Structures are given as C-alpha cells and as structure tokens.
Amino acid sequence: MSLTVQQTTIVQSSFRSVLPMSSSAGELFYKRLFEIDPAIAPLFKRGMKEQSEQFMRVLALAVGGLSSISTLAPMVKQLGVRHAGYGVKPEHYDAFRRALLWMLAAILQDAYTEEVREAWSTAYSMIAGIMKEAAWGAP
User: Fold this and answer.
1) Are 80 and 135 in contact (CB under 8 A)?
2) Which of 23, 127, 132, 138 measures 20 to 30 Å from 91, CA to CA?
3) Interior CA angle at 22 toward 120 and 117, to 5°?
4) Spatial distance between the Cα atoms of 22 and 28, rounded to a whole number of angstroms
5) Is 48 in contact with 30 (CB distance < 8 Å)?
6) pTM over 0.85
C-alpha cells in the first residue's frame, strides 16, 4: 500500500495543526491506547510524559519523511525491530491504529474529515507494514 501525493500532503498539513498540541496529543494517544488494549500498557517502561514526547517526535519524523519513503524506510524498519524487542506483537498494530485515528479526531475536530482519516489510515498501514515486515518478515 502506498500513499498518493495528495494523501501525503493531507497527512503533513493536518499534522501541522496537531503540532502545537503535541503534548496533549501524545497523552491522548496513550490514554486511548490503554483503554483499547490494557494489556499493552506494561510494554511501556518510561513515564507517560516522556513516552508521549518520544511518540510525538517519532511521529513528526515519520510524517515529515512521507515524501521520501526510500529515506524513511530504514528508520521505520529499525523502529519495527525495536518495537518487537519491547514485546509489541503484530496484533497490537490495530490498537495503535485505532488510538492514533481517535487522537487525531479529538485534536483536529471538524478538520478531521473522511479524506483526512483515509489519508492517515493509508499512511499508518504503509508504515506499519514496513515495521512488521522488518520485525517478523511479513506485513
């Protein structure tokens, strides 16, 4: 699955609206993630403030790199392998997707249109596929 140029632009421009609220966005993401799948919580050893900040930094790098997947892919592959080492399993990726899309909807509100949701969902599927293939050999 790959992103169109238009979807890349949509993800990147909508993320610029999230950035000023990145601290609360990261916290919302983890709160929702642990509501969706409480069994995931023990995988995160850092304090939630630090974890939220790290998540938003990585998300910013990933979103910024969407214009050049060949440049982004090595980082994403390493991220996938690292996450597997932390105990993340392929089935956890759905909970991450749901938490991410929920957080975006909560932050963007009326700007979270079907087109925005679809672009983010496609971007997530592409990145998650790269991560899972690097970690387990199959998307």
Assistant:
1) yes
2) 23
3) 15
4) 10
5) yes
6) yes
